[in-house]
């Protein structure tokens, strides 16, 4: 997960601060020294780390903090505010013109993920009600046009291409095509190079001059740390980019690039890539990222994920069934499938406030657990799912063979489901009806309170 190392070191520094009732100036300076070291170890630019800790120290040694009843909490609040400001303060949105289309030029080094993230961005914009058009302006890399067509088709976004024609002419023709066909966003997937060279920049400048894009987004790999920041600075000096898409943020445990890009270039991170799937692109929110770094969770992003990826109608039906104690294995299967839509379990748990990231990393959270449970349920007949009590030993053997699991695994799932039903009845009172809004705890380790053990 992103920022794991930094989060751990900051938590340790603030734990020492909290252990002291009253803070002295030397206590704050010692804590800030640890924070600076943590930032440098996270591959944050040296000047950025130095300026950050200096700002926090200046604010933290004031009388308002020192004389507070909870000085340590005040210091953490200041660090949170300064981290948010360091990454841009607020979510930087795309600048849509009053007269469409919005022309958006994607640029970056080869291998940074421009083509994939062009499709990801197209999919995201389409889900928001826009009509994007992907444009193949990379005529040099083998199969680049075919790749864009494949990912564009998966994202459900049309692709405009003219083969190996001049990229400037392709871009101009694409904008004219978008105006004629009602596309309100044009995403230009430009060519990358193994390093920044004059030919690459000249071509990008020519496209910029001819089609006048409102947005120039630089795609950089977060895993490259300070190299990503240097690339961003070089592109900004030559092209004057409007923002950055930071890819592979889910795999960058240090997070130095995310914390340095804005301070070094003055340009905001607008989107972050958080996985390999086309839906794994999200708007970058500095305040939420700061909360995640400080171990405060990110409930807003979790709620947005649930709203975007879960079926509201099915959720209402499930709530109604729960109030009437009518839950069966079909409903359980549906719940597993809904949760899987929200991404890896570690990612979901990591957004919850108060979750110890170090312990979460050490825990053996296997996403295949739900897949195995689903396989068992899918191996049952409709009658067995609706009424699990009819499943006798011979049926269990058939279900185990059909799902590739053991009979013990089938028994364990049925036992846990039975315990969950009992808990629902206990919570429901004498009439067997539960109070609206109360739901039994769903535990991946033991649905219904099996002490957090993983079932398989």
UniProtKB/TrEMBL annotation:
Assigned GO CC terms: signal recognition particle
SUPFAM superfamilies linked: P-loop containing nucleoside triphosphate hydrolases (SSF52540), Signal peptide-binding domain (SSF47446)
GO biological process terms held by the UniProt record: SRP-dependent cotranslational protein targeting to membrane
Broadest EC class assigned to this enzyme: hydrolase
Domain Signal recognition particle SRP54 helical bundle: 2-87
Residue ranges annotated for the SRP54-type proteins GTP-binding domain, each copy included: 101-295
Location within or outside the cell: Cytoplasm
Location of region: Disordered: 425-456
Catalytic activity field: GTP + H2O = GDP + phosphate + H(+)
Entries under InterPro entries matching the protein: AAA+_ATPase, P-loop_NTPase, Signal_recog_part_SRP54_M_sf, Signal_recog_particl_SRP54_hlx, Signal_recog_particle_SRP54_M, SRP, SRP54, SRP54_GTPase_dom
Binding-site positions, GTP: 108-115, 189-193, 247-250
Compositional bias per record (Gly residues), positions renumbered to this chain: 445-456
Biased composition (Basic residues): 428-437
EC number: 3.6.5.4
Any one GO molecular function term: 7S RNA binding
Alphabetically ordered keywords of this record: Cytoplasm, GTP-binding, Hydrolase, Nucleotide-binding, Ribonucleoprotein, RNA-binding, Signal recognition particle
Record has Ion transport as a keyword: no
UniProt note: domains: Composed of three domains: the N-terminal N domain, which is responsible for interactions with the ribosome, the central G domain, which binds GTP, and the C-terminal M domain, which binds the RNA and the signal sequence of the RNC.
Record family assignment: Belongs to the GTP-binding SRP family. SRP54 subfamily.
Subunit and partners: Part of the signal recognition particle protein translocation system, which is composed of SRP and FtsY.
Function: Involved in targeting and insertion of nascent membrane proteins into the cytoplasmic membrane. Binds to the hydrophobic signal sequence of the ribosome-nascent chain (RNC) as it emerges from the ribosomes. The SRP-RNC complex is then targeted to the cytoplasmic membrane where it interacts with the SRP receptor FtsY.
HAMAP family attached to this UniProt entry: SRP54
Protein name: Signal recognition particle protein
